[in-house]
Specification:
Number of domains of chain B: 2
CATH superfamily of the largest domain in chain B: HypD, alpha/beta domain 2
Shape of chain B: globular
CATH class of the largest domain in chain B: Alpha Beta
CATH topology of chain A: SH3 type barrels
Oligomer: heterodimer
CATH architecture of chain A: Roll
Helix content of chain B: 25-40%
Strand order of the largest sheet of chain A: 3-2-1-4-5
Low-confidence stretches of chain A: none
CATH topology of the largest domain in chain B: Rossmann fold
Order of helices and strands of chain A: EEEEEH
Largest sheet of chain A: 5 strands, antiparallel
Shape of chain A: elongated
CATH class of chain A: Mainly Beta
Largest interface: A-B, 32 and 53 residues
Helix content of chain A: 25-40%
Number of strands of chain B: 11
CATH architecture of the largest domain in chain B: 3-Layer(aba) Sandwich
């Protein structure tokens, strides 16, 4: 029940409403729980409400760290 | 969004699994990690993570499914509300098939107009306006992820002075549940995989009590396979050094202080309440209820509903399954008498229930 999906806000509407998109799907969402929703923000949506803005830079940096872990493991595995 | 694909890919997962194997080999004995989120229960089983972990790591499903921890007496009271043709009981779909003490569920009223399934609480205002001659009552089930969405709707209802919209709440809060589990004299877990979306709202700092004496290693995790593996690795690393801590492994969504706007809204409208949990009984201040200023929306008060009791169906082990003390195949009803089409207990009803997840995805 705590299922939530990331989507991109494509348009902010009056009365704390917005349109969000994932792929070709667009849905109307409520953004009243966000401080300053803007078009282009990636948000997590739960039960029709955006509950937080995603930090995409943080996500990319973390994946880079995982890649680094992979390289470190490869170095450790290689014949000495 | 490329990062989502990366977080599901074998290439990204492999080095973390390897690191998990290395770390697990340094730990003596078993490490039992409890997830306390129904969405984790399903995501772990769907992604087959159980089968990727080395021997010595066991994942246990705890009380993380909101429908499952809702006691049978609450369902009985919802049935009282649905029997009145002057009422519309609005609910998330997961609640529809959960049986009350007499084995009857809200599904009995499907198609009668007395029960309405909603995708979002935001539909409530228009439902109430379109039915001015009915009393619309929303079954407020959920943890901190869902609670602010419902609070936002009732804040709007108050501003609009809607007189025919009510809330029958059974909101539960996660930190109190963790505390109860920690205080079990026969502790049967060594770490917590903490719920990502509850944490989005309450923030990583809300778990600081886990870092104190008597706590356990814990990690906040998202719901992609790599997110969950990273959380498991974090717990193992702390355990291998005997350390305690709460690592935020979902920082793209979870901030230290949580979603302040949502927290302020919850604080404005709701106050701590003693709540009845299936299998755990009444836990002090383990949930939230409407503050006195908003009591006119409180269906329990307005409709004079009886107090909530808790009693499983005969033979049903949901109470023990919820606590992670037994696994579903240990229940004699599992998969035979009790199936998703004919559920006996809530763990088989909800898509996030442990029994439903076991049946759908198997033991691994």
């Amino acid at each position: 029940m705590c299922l939530a999906v990331p989507m991109e806000i494509v348009k902010v509407l009056p009365d704390n409403k917005a349109v969000a998109r994932q792929g070709t799907t667009e849905v109307d969402i409520d953004v009243s729980l966000l401080e300053n929703p803007r078009a282009g923000d990636y948000v997590i949506i739960h039960a029709g409400f955006a509950i937080e803005t995603l930090d995409l830079q943080e996500a990319e940096e973390r994946i880079d760290l995982f890649r680094q872990l992979d390289e470190d493991n490869a170095r450790m595995d290689s014949p000495k | 969004m490329n990062f989502e694909e990366e977080l599901r890919s074998k290439e990204t997962a492999s080095p973390i699994i390897k690191e998990i194997e290395i770390t697990a080999s340094k730990i003596e004995g078993e490490t039992r990690i409890m997830e306390v989120c129904g969405t984790h229960t399903v995501s772990l089983r769907r992604s087959g993570i159980h089968s990727l972990l080395p021997p010595g790591i066991r994942l246990i499903s705890g009380p993380g499914c909101p429908v499952c921890v809702t006691p049978s007496g609450y369902i009985d009271n919802a049935l009282i509300l649905a029997e009145d043709p002057g009422n519309i009981v609005a609910t998330f779909g997961d609640m529809l098939k959960v049986p009350g003490r007499k084995g009857i569920s809200l599904a009995r009223y499907s198609g009668s107009g007395n029960v309405k399934i909603l995708y979002s609480p935001s539909e409530l205002v228009s439902l109430a306006r379109e039915n001015p001659d009915k009393q619309v009552i929303f079954l407020g089930i959920g943890f901190e992820t869902t609670i602010p969405t419902i609070a936002a709707v009732f804040q709007k209802a108050a501003a609009l002075k809607l007189g025919n919209l009510f809330l029958y709440s059974a909101f539960k809060t996660v930190p109190q549940a963790l505390n109860i589990l920690l205080n079990d004299p026969n502790r049967y877990f060594d770490g917590f995989l903490l719920p990502g979306h509850v944490s989005v709202i309450i923030g990583a700092d809300a778990y600081s009590f886990l870092e104190e004496e008597g706590g356990v290693p814990a990690a906040i995790a998202g719901f992609e396979p790599v997110d969950m593996l990273r959380g498991i690795l974090s717990i193992l690393k702390m355990r291998s050094t005997g350390g305690l801590g709460v690592e935020n492994c979902y920082p793209r969504a979870v901030r230290a202080g949580g979603n302040l706007k949502a927290l302020n809204l919850m604080d404005q409208m709701l106050e701590p309440s003693d709540e009845v949990w299936r299998a755990l009984g009444t836990l002090p201040e383990s949930g939230l209820k409407l503050r006195k200023e908003y009591q006119r929306f409180d269906a329990g008060e307005v409709f004079g509903l009886p107090g909530i009791t808790d009693q499983d169906q005969p033979g049903c082990l949901c109470g023990k399954v919820i606590l992670g003390k037994v696994i579903p195949p240990e229940c004699s009803l599992f998969g035979d008498t009790c199936t998703p089409d004919h559920p006996v207990g809530p763990c088989m009803v909800s898509s996030e229930g442990t029994c439903a997840a076991y049946l759908r995805y198997g033991e691994t």
